[in-house]
Amino acid sequence: MPRHTVRAYVARYPRLVPHDDDEQSPPDDVAPTYGRDRAKATYAFGRSVLAPIARFVYRPRVEGRQNIPTSGPVIFASNHLSFIDSVIIPVTSTRPVYFLAKSSYFTGTGLKGALSRLFFTSFGASPVQRGAGQAALDALEQHRQMLEEGKAVALYPEGTRSLDGRLYKGRTGVAFLALQTGAKVVPVGLQNTNLAMPVGAKVPKLRPRMVVRFGEPLELRHLGPASSGRARRQATDAIMAAIHALSEQELAGIYNEPPAPTAIERIKQALPHERR
């Protein structure tokens, strides 16, 4: 178990990273739902058949399952090291977990496309059309609807995978949803997923064993309304502090942004701007 308590990290974390009190939220966004009835049946198959097989083969070490609420809306807020993260969380959770995946995983043709749709739907994925503007608002709305239906969803406050193994500063979309819906946030710390399935790998390795740590649920509504930038930032810091305690990663202290493709975009990244 981590040497330091989550409470200690919550107290220290805001002093370890820079702040943007007026930062806005919003996750990436979502495309039309992929066959609801078929998706439900496929997910039932994945949870009852594929998940036990995956647990048997890869034997992930799981800690804190007792911290997962048995009912009600829950956000699993996790660090993000590997593609396999979105599979290992649903596989080890005591309740169904839903997440968003790139729409291209659902639109392929032929046998490869069918297998891709089967795989992602089996583990609770819904298609997402990445982007900003209306696309981001649509994704936010889909997450909100799932939470209001009492479901559990998995999200990554860092926004994208950490390629160097450090924990990057959290974006406020997760906090926005938690404050807006009243959902409890269960912090998740993943270890070794980037070693078991590094970038470019097609299949996870059996060694090293992946570690999944579920932390105690965080209640954040006392921090203020979702419309408050300060409340969103404080809630995000509390979430990231808990993830930090569980994952034991080195803090990057900055946002994880992909390299800008052009000189103009690099200049925009260097200037103060709203991180989504």
Q: Could you state the oligomeric state of the chains shown?
A: single chain
Mean pLDDT: 80
Number of discrete helical segments: 9
Structural shape: globular
Share of helix among residues? 25-40%
Q: Give me the count of strands.
A: 7
Q: Whole-Å distance between the termini?
A: 32 Å
Order of helices and strands: HHEEHEHEHEHEHEHH
Strand content range: 5-15%
Instruction: Sketch the major β-sheet.
Output: 5 strands, mixed
Which regions have little confidence, pLDDT < 50, spanning 5+ residues?
A: 18-34
Tell me the number of structural domains: 1
CATH fold annotation: Glycerol-3-phosphate (1)-acyltransferase
Q: What would CATH call the class?
A: Alpha Beta
Protein name: 1-acyl-sn-glycerol-3-phosphate acyltransferase
GO biological process, one term: phosphatidic acid biosynthetic process
GO molecular function: 1-acylglycerol-3-phosphate O-acyltransferase activity
Pfam family, one: Acyltransferase
Description:
By secondary structure, the chain is α/β, with parallel strands linked by helices. It has a single domain, classed as Glycerol-3-phosphate (1)-acyltransferase, CATH 3.40.1130. It has 9 helices and 7 strands. Strands 1-7-6-2-5 form a 5-stranded mixed β-sheet, sandwiched between helices. Strands 3-4 form a two-stranded parallel ribbon. Strand 3, helix 4 and strand 4 form a beta-alpha-beta unit. Helix 1 crosses helix 8, helix 2 packs across helix 4 and helix 5 packs across helix 6. The radius of gyration is 18 Å and the shape is globular. It starts with 5 loop residues before the first helix and ends in a 6-residue tail after the last helix. Keywords: Acyltransferase, Transferase. One of its GO terms (biological process) is phosphatidic acid biosynthetic process.
